[in-house]
Amino acid sequence: MSTRAILAPREPELRGQTVAVIGGSAGIGLATARRARSEGAEVIITGRNRDRLGLAAEEIGAEHIAAFDAHDPMALESFFRDLPNKIDHVMVTAGAPHYRSPLEASPEEARHDLTEHLLLALSVARSAAGNVKPSGSLTFMGGTGARRPRPGLAIVSTVTVALPALIANLALELAPVRVNLIAAGFVDTPLSASLLGENLERRRDELRATLPIRRVVKPADVAALAVHIMSNPALTGATYDIDGGQQLVS
Description:
Elements: E1 18-22, H1 27-38, E2 42-47, H2 50-60, E3 64-67, H3 73-81, E4 87-92, H4 107-128, E5 132-143, H5 154-174, E6 178-184, H6 190-196, H7 200-210, H8 219-231, E7 239-242
Parallel strand pairs: 1-2, 1-4, 2-3, 4-5, 5-6, 6-7
C-alpha cells in the first residue's frame, strides 16, 4: 500500500499586511498591486490620473487610491502623513527614463533628467520614515539597459549607476526598514509601447529571438519579484536584475 504526502495549502505571503504602490494604475505598478492582493495584502495605489486609478482599484479590489504627482515632495509627504495607520511595504514605479543626448538638452533639462529619479527615491524615503512598520520595506524600480555606454544614453546611464548606491545607503539610513532596487531590462508595458511607438513589435521579435528565456519579460514577472522582496525579511540594500538574460547577449 502506497502513501502519498498531503501538502498543506500555502499561506499567502502578505496576509494581513498593507502595500502602497506609488505609480500603481498601470504596467508594473498595477501588476504588483494585483500580485500583492493575491497574496493577501490590502493595497493602496497612487497615480496622477484619478479616473484610471479608479478603474484599477475596482479591478483588483484596492483599499484606497490617491491621485497626486509623486515627483511633488509636498504631495508625497501629505500622502504618507495622512495614512490612517502605518503600512508594511511601499513599491515605487512612478516615473520614466529620459532618453536624450546630454549635448542636446538644455542645462535645466539635463539637471532634471539626472536628478528626477534620485530625488524621488529620497523623497519617498524621507516621507515613508516613521510611516512604514520596522518589519516593512521600500522597493524602487531602476533599469539595466543603459549599463553599456552608447551614444545618447549618458544621462540614463548615470542614473542607472547611481541608483544602486543610493538604495544601499538608504537601507542603512532606514534600518530596520528594508530598502531594495529592482533593475529591469525591457518590460512589455504601456510605457514601453509609448517610448517605442511603431518599433515596438520589432523590438519584441528581437528579444524573443535573442533572450535566453525566449520570451519578453512581462509586468507580472517583475511583480512576482517585488512581492518576494517584500516577503523575504533577509533582503535589504541590494539590486535585483530582471531582464530575461538581456545583459548576457549583444
